[in-house]
Structures are given as structure tokens and as C-alpha cells.
Amino acid sequence: MKINLTRIKPVVGYSHFVHLGLIVLLPIFVYVLVRLDFVQLAFGLVLLSKWRVFAVKPRYWPALIRNNAVDAFVGISIVVFMTHTDAASWQLVWAGLYGLWLVFLKPGSKVWQVSLQALIGQMMGLTALFLAGGSTPLLWLVAAGWSICYLSARHFYSSFDEPHTALYAYTWGYFSGALIWVLGHWLVFYGSIAQATLLLSVIGLVGAAIYYLEETDKLSLLLKRQLVFGMVAVVLVILVLSGWGDNPFSQ
Known about the structure:
mainly alpha, 2 domains, two-stranded antiparallel sheet, 9 helices, 251 residues
């Protein structure tokens, strides 16, 4: 469902510059709150920045929540990343990247921009999920991972004239949840990146690339085979070389 956002998002005039100024200030306020150890307030500020979702009639809320979910994933992930380092320089880097996201990438509506938004949102969301909630019950990890992947897929397909968007998104969410359920019993991390995040990012990236190239008539049979073979090779390398305890290849 397409929703006209012109009434709740200023695009011209004085209000537009006020809106842009508030966007620029958001990463600064988040950084300050994290430095002052008001982490909950930082999370609340990110969520409060989505107030426009509820500035319309309730029947539009589900669609607007889906449309704004990826941006929320990025904002929440930035706060998580900031709280997992004590270095002010790194926290400034994350705040700067958040500002770039808000000003340059998030407003984009071209196909490649929306696709990139979805991929970034999913990867950052999953990374933050396992980084902050790796010790939570597996059921919660599966539910949260399913939500992140499902909503990211909905965002990805929103720029295409795809009649089966819901079906594809539910399928990807189910696959992601199932993979998290299996790998969640043996959580393996590469630095700060969980194995499930890496696998879903690789598979999702290749799947999105194949779909994008197919929709833009740029996908040849040879290129498709190369992408699939490359994905399978990377997945096998990740699985074989992971620290599985009794796995002889991990010694």
C-alpha cells in the first residue's frame, strides 16, 4: 500500500530546513546521551524520532511501521554499537555514520537505494541483535531475527512491482528464523559478527542481487551460476572453518 507522506514530512520551505536540522541533531543527541550513560534515553530518542508514523489515522499505522522499520533497525543498532565501546572516537564514528544514513541514504527512493537500505538494515539489525541479546532465550532470538529479516525483505521488494511481496518476505523470514534456531544452539562469533548474521547477509545479498538483475534484464545464465556458485562456496567455507568444538577442521 502506497501512502502519501507529504502531509507528515515537509519537503519545501522553512519547515523543510527545520526538519533537516532536527535530523542532523539526532545523531549528536544520541552520542551525548550515550556518553552520559543515559542509554535508555538514547534508545527512546531514536524511537521518538519515528513519531510521524502515528501522526496519521490508525489504519495507516501497519503500513507506515513496515516502511519505517529499516530506519529504526539502523538507529537502534547504532546505539547498541555505541554502548559496546568505551572509546569516544569510535562512538563519534558511529554517530557520523548515522548522520550520513539519515541525510543521504535514508531519503533515497531509487531502486538501488531502497535495496541498499534493506541490506544495511538487515545486517546491522542482526549484528546488534546477537551482540546485545546473544544470551537471551533462543525463542526470542528467533522471533526478533524473523522480524528483522521479514521487514527488511518487505522494504527491499517495496521498490519493485512485485505481486508476491508478502509471500517472498514471509519465506525469507521463515528461512532466517529457522537458520537462527539451528545456529543459535552453537553461537559462533567472528569478532562482533555472529555466524548467523554473516550467513544470512551473504545469502540475502546474492538473492537480492539475482532478483535485482533479473528485474532489470541484466541477469544472464552464466552470471546467475557464478553468483550462486560463489555464494555456496562462501557458505561452505564459513561452515567448515567455524569453531564447532569437535570439528577437526576448526583445530
